[in-house]
Amino acid sequence: LMMQHLKNKWESIESSQTSSYILEPLDALNLFIGLNPKGNRILALDIKDQSEVDMDLYPSWNGAPVEHQKIDNCYYIIITLLDESQKNIFDDLIHNLILRFTSVVSINDALDIYSVWLLEYQIFFKKDKLPLNKSAQRGLIGELLFLRNHVFTLADPIPALQTWRGHDRKNHDFSFVNGNVEIKTTISKEKAPIFK
After folding, report:
1. Which residues contact 141 (CB under 8 A, 6 or more apart)?
2. Which residues share a beta bridge with 179?
3. Rounded to whole angstroms, how far apart are CA atoms 77 and 43?
4. 21-33: per-residue pLDDT in tens?
5. Mapping DSSP to helix (H, G, I), strand (E, B) and coil, where does residue 196 land?
């Protein structure tokens, strides 16, 4: 029933296409679907006046990039569908997100659920990788210890986990608003902390 409702909304939106953004609310707090000026389908989370969002915390998908965009004096995190042949997958993603938003009551809850949702899909669809070698295992243990002993002491669990980028094998293991942290581990018996 919900998928048919979503399909009907898309038909209504696409029949009124213009050269500007079109946004229609979904039955979930701050979630919208619509079209961008090029006619691509979009999913938008209204984050109100939050003009600063660390987009490094969000995955980058080839077929559906995630962006921070200002539209009519409001800020949104937008996923744009680039390949029209993938409409069904896009609708499945939207449907899943709507189900997760049933208990959302604040913009902070919405951002947390949205962020976790994006990361879970990225992890699920990630290509298989070879098992970690001993050095990579040591590095992972170092990152997890830093997360437990330092980051979790300064932030709530979800924002703390969102700072961790090591699992993506990015340039930095942790990305914070004021800078980045790279964890280095050693098997040497001497402690050698390095701060730069």
Report:
1. 185
2. 176
3. 8
4. 999 998 778 899 9
5. coil
